[in-house]
Amino acid sequence: MTAIGVIGLGKMGRGMALSLKRAGYRVLGFDVMEPVCAALTAEGIETVATIGAIMEVAEIVILSLPTAEIVETVVAGDSGILAHARAGAVIVDTSTSHPDTTRRLAGLVAAKAMSFVDAPVSGGPKGAITGTMTMVIGGADEDVARVMPILEHMSAKRVHVGPAGAGHVTKIINNLLCAAHLLTAAEAMRIAREAGVDAERLLEGLNAGSGRSGVTQVNFPSWVLNGAFNSGFTMKLMRKDVRLAERFTGELGLSLPLAAAAARIWAESAAMIADDEDFNRIVELQLGPTGRSEPS
Ligand code: NAD
User: Fold this and answer.
1) From residue 114, how far is each of 107, 110, 111, 217, 258 by CA, in Å?
2) Any domain includes 295
3) Ligand 1 atom at minimum distance from 77 CA
4) How many domains does one find in the chain?
């Protein structure tokens, strides 16, 4: 039986570990937070106290970690994966991370006869636990082919977009677009409110036309207009992703006025909307407390 390690057992990693266990794999989990490990143990996942203990048995290691810096520590730090390198093992980083970190780590890992695949995800905690996430994948063809049977148990859609790092480039662009679309869709709703058009009817019209986006098709109906705001993705994470996009595009030397305006609004939102709130709450900057846009 293939043994799979999952490092980072938070909202996403927990669901991935449980999906893989359900698919029949031996799953070993590791997280720096002891209560997080204890909760997963109670759900039937074998948790271990060190990354070394994962590397003793796991051929595939899934990462689901908060930031690129933490991914770097977990892979290349003193007691990290490379300190316990296992020839032939493949690291699959599902975190939303920096492409340069990914490329650098892919090089370090290759020097120890291991491989690195970036497979950042969308679909939220629900997608993780139901194995229905979407993945944009970066990596060498042979490495991606090797982990594909495992990725198929974690996701409903997978797009291999290029070599190591390409998945993270794509994910950063995707989340930048989603962050910007939330702002523009909220402004659209505001226009409709002032012009006396009902929010639900507006959405129906937009979604039949070329102005639609994932935000008008999914976010507004699922989490905004019904007041649910329970997507599982927080303001903190989206602000992190927007900062990551700003940093990455700056490093590329690009001047992107719309992206810069979106980044400023998301950064300033920290003074108004708490880190642990649902990321769709950003629409309230334009639409007020419930996000609903009733005709006036
Ligand atoms: P989370 O904060 O719930 O979980 C992260 C886990 O990593 C925590 O349990 C934390 O204790 C653990 N951790 C931190 N440092 C560690 C270390 N050095 N070693 C081992 N474990 C460590 O975050 P999440 O919502 O599960 O997100 C994980 C990643 O997935 C992020 O990069 C995020 O941007 C991305 N993502 C999240 C969502 C979502 O809806 N939550 C959707 C798509 C992508």
Assistant:
1) 9, 5, 7, 41, 40
2) no
3) 18
4) 2
Query: Would you tell me how many other CB atoms lie within 10 Å of the CB of residue 44?
Result: 11
Task: Report the distance separating Cα 145 and Cα 135, nearest Å.
Answer: 14
pLDDT tens-place string over residues 107-143: 999 999 999 999 999 999 999 999 999 999 999 999 9
Contact criterion met (CB below 8 Å) for 29 and 40: yes
One domain, residues 90 and 11: yes
Q: b/e per residue, 125-152, with b = 16+ CB within 10 A?
A: bebbbebbbebbbbbeeebbebbeebbe
Q: Which two tokens stand for residue 111?
A: 């020097």
Exposed/middle/buried for residue 209 (C-beta within 10 Å: 0-12, 13-18, 19+):
exposed
Over residues 238-284, the pLDDT tens digits come to: 999 999 999 999 999 999 999 999 999 999 999 999 999 999 999 99
* Cα–Cα distance measured from residue 105 to residue 140, given in angstroms and rounded to the nearest whole number: 14
- Distance, CA 66 to ligand 1 centroid (Å)? 4
**Cα 157 to averaged position of ligand 1 atoms, centre (Å):** 21
Ligand 1-lining residues (CB < 6 angstroms): 7-13, 30-33, 36, 64-66, 70, 73-74, 95-96, 121-122, 124-125, 232-233, 237
Do residue 118 and residue 158 come from a single domain?
A: yes
- What burial class does residue 252 get, using C-beta atoms within 10 Å of its C-beta: 0-12 exposed, 13-18 middle, 19+ buried? exposed
What sign results for the dihedral spanned by CA atoms 293, 282, 259, 265? positive
Residues 179 and 264 placed together within one structural domain of the fold:
yes
pTM for the predicted model, two decimal places: 0.95
